[in-house]
Here is the input.
Amino acid sequence: MNAPVLSANREREVTVGNGWFMLFLLLALIIGDIALFIYTLVHAATDREAPNPYQLGGLVVAFPVLMVLLRGLFSLQPNEARVLVLFGQYKGTVRKSGYHWGNPFYSNGPSNFRQWAVMMDQKEKGQAAAQPVIHKVQSRNKISLRARTLNMPPLKVNDKRGNPIEIAAVVIWRVQDTAQAAFDVDDYENYVKTQSETSLRHLASAYAYDHGEENEITLRSGVEEVSQALRQELQARFEKAGVLVDEARLTHLAYAPEIAQAMLRRQQAEAVIAARQKIVHGAVSMVDMALKELAEKHVVTLDDERKASMVSNLMVVLCGESEVHPVVNTGTLYT
Here is the structure.
């Protein structure tokens, strides 16, 4: 039996009334209602007759109605939006900054937008003290559209070759679709944190730390390529929450402490081997050049045994780490 596929919500931008106009209008109506109510009572007392019950009742009912309408006033800062939810139904999103008025029955929306604190009872669990868990949220369905920075702490993961490494990254993101952020995930901020950690772990396991095969991208040598791959994977995961990734980049990359010393010795040994190879390659080229120059200019005629002796001496001189002290031979090679 296949599970039902939930359709993704899509943002609809709407416009609402001018807040300043409605503020002055409602205040004028409230003042007028109070003044008319007082006038009705005073006029009835002066004429010594009962006030009109319908008029008095209308004035009494109008006052709480006007007070309720005042709740429809709200303000938005630049790069801030408000999701409008009426009796559980999404009506649209206001993105324009300023002072606005909307339906006062637009609810505060899902519970993940409300600020709440939960005290964990740690005494029953044998822990020292209870600490509150605070959930930072926006009020009245307001969602910030500003760019945010998620600086992930170093994670210990295994790279492609199974070596334990420490890796961290920074992600710059912002909400692009407010409807998806509000209704398609439970808490989009927590969703971003969780998916970022999952993506970073998956990325680290797909690449070797260093010393890859020929033309292989590694975490250490291909920082730009790896960062681009991380951004693409994050964007694919954040699509469900309506979040856009502006930038993703590695900030920390190192071997885990338990193998750091061993890997450092390996790197030093490989550096020494690479240097020796370069020295030997250069020494062989110089010896070959010397033999060719002697032969072409007919400086001396050397047989194979003398060439072998000359090559041996030159290789010792060129490849030796300590200073060479020459020995003058006053005889011949055969005596």
